[in-house]
Amino acid sequence: xxxxxxxxxPLSQTAKASGQxxxxxxxxxxxxEAIARGAWEAGVKVAAAYPGxxxxxxxxxxxxxxxxxxxxxxxTNEKVALxxxxxxxxxxxxxxxxxxxxxLNVASDSLMSQTYIGVNGALVLVVCDDPGIxxxxxxxxxxxxxxxxxxxxxxxxxxxxxxxxxxxxxDLSEQFDTPVxxxxxxxxxxxxxLVKTGERVEVRGKGFxxxxxxxxxxxxxxxxxxxxxxxxxxLLQEYFENSDLIRWEPGxxxxxxxxxxxxxxxxxxxxxxxxxxxxxxxxPLPEAKIREFCSSVKRIIVVEELEPVIENxxxxxxxxxxxxxxxPREGEFSTEVVRDGFEAAGLLPPTPKFELIDIxxxxxxxxxxxxxxxxxxxxxLRALNSRVSGDIGCYTLAAVxxxxxxxxxxxxxxxxxxxxxxxxxxxxxxxxxxxxxDSTFLHAGIPPLINAVYNNANITVVLLDNHITAxxxxxxxxxTGRNLRGQETHKIDYEALxxxxxxxxxxKIDSYNMGSVYQSLREATLYKGVAVLILDRPCVLDPVKLKxxxxxxxxxxxxxxxxxxxxxxxxxxxxxxxxxxHHKVKxxxxxxxxxxxxxxxxxxxCIQPVDAGLLQ
Length: 616
Ligand SMILES: Cc1ncc(C[n+]2csc(CCOP(=O)(O)OP(=O)(O)O)c2C)c(N)n1
Prior knowledge:
Layout: H1 3-12, H2 14-18, E1 26-30, H3 31-41, E2 46-49, H4 56-62, E3 71-74, H5 78-90, E4 95-100, H6 101-117, E5 123-129, H7 142-148, E6 153-154, H8 159-176, E7 180-185, H9 186-189, E8 192-196, H10 212-215, H11 219-241, E9 246-249, E10 252-260, H12 263-270, E11 274-279, E12 281-283, H13 287-295, E13 299-303, H14 309-316, E14 321-322, H15 335-344, H16 375-383, E15 387-389, H17 414-425, E16 432-437, H18 438-454, E17 460-465, H19 494-501, E18 505-510, H20 514-526, E19 531-536, E20 551-553, E21 572-579, E22 582-587, H21 597-601, E23 607-609
Parallel strand pairs: 2-3, 2-4, 4-5, 5-7, 6-7, 10-11, 10-13, 13-14, 15-16, 16-17, 17-19, 18-19
Antiparallel strand pairs: 1-8, 6-12, 9-11, 20-23, 21-22
The chain binds thiamine diphosphate (TPP).
């Protein structure tokens, strides 16, 4: 039995609780699925998250386990999710929250205090970084947060480790009285590999721990806890010295590679003969083990994605190491990137570089879906020559051609306060508008709306209500009236909420009525004060959508004016065939969902419904 499995056993009483664990067959699992499985096996009771790529599937998979085993929820944002998990920990049960890297920015205020408090029931945060920025607004490295919060950071490499490390994180959390971060990356979260699963351990809830000096962070208590934190760091460090999380794979003494996470697999592929110290933890580091490893090799190279977190710690320890002089500090690693680094270090012969064929594929801009209800707002805002603070969601795509109607986009919930600042600065001559999706509004849009009213800003807020969190795959939220398990629950009444905030100008209309969207926005932007226009229409990918009759172009009436093309609808393109010597517009009937927007914006009656009636 591995040391890791051994370590898990006495703490979670695996054998005692489940008898002799049944041997499960190996199963291919995505990293996120394995993390969920590890949490379930560890006996998690409270799990809360806000969706965000690449972390979303963790909570979606946890919700597949019986409700009798655990409470799993979509929370309104990551701070709320962490606070719910903290509540579970206070109540003495094993708790988890998961989020994407930027989610930890939102949750960090609670983490920075909770790390002082520690835990009663285990508290595990799974944070998924996005090197290469596949689907995020930045590329930050969560390991630095771990150091700041003095919270241990475990770093699995594959799905099996994702399961094992997550399970272990619950034990370590309780053993060392600390929240524990399990850090994943897109590559791990979304890659499948074979996993051996185990049984669930039912861990009995401990009940609330009456210990105000630990649970209530006032200055007098916090000073004592800060001291305890440093002692905890020392104990964790001692523990990691002899943990299976640190694996020494002996090889040539010419060079020793210190690596972790998915970078480990690239190192093994391109440089199998090297001595490797694989770290399953990036904070706190087992300094003695590292010292021993470093003294066994002539040259030390750290291979880590993103920031030089390990490299800098090694330098502080006084080691002569190379790292970011060979490998990039931004972007995602691959075998090629890692091989290039070793070639630059003179450790691998240069590989023949192939001449790249100079054929650029045609640029295809990212587009909103055919019939996306967000389209009309941006068509109208452009026509009104507005200064638009955008937010984060599918609608951020309106920043690029052809809609090109968003001027700023910072972070979730920023649009309204950004617009407030722009308006209050007094330099803007155009109407100042914030656009924000329904999920984002509930996540972080309400305090800035209260602020805008409170400070008397002259702005228009467009609430793009498509009844779903579309960007991350269509999750429910408090505005949909359904929870994570699909059960009916209270549905937010946006108009009542916004009225209670003190907004005097509120209007709700159908996003698909182009004329009404334009007229209403014009009215809203002329209003002095905060005006909120709710644009209401379900996302076209919403499972309950109605697909109307598709539209078609009558070639004989098409003047080639391109008004319909300004929608950026992917169902609309130029026809290949010539009609009376000219290319005309055509509509892909299979992609068209019958929203009628192209017919509404057309300058002639050239676009009409297909006579066949309802599609499919
Ligand atoms: C702090 C943070 N958490 C999560 C995300 C991931 N994310 C990006 S947009 C978005 C919500 C989008 O939903 P909504 O505002 O309703 O717009 P839609 O995509 O439906 O148009 C989420 C969860 C993020 N970028 N930042």
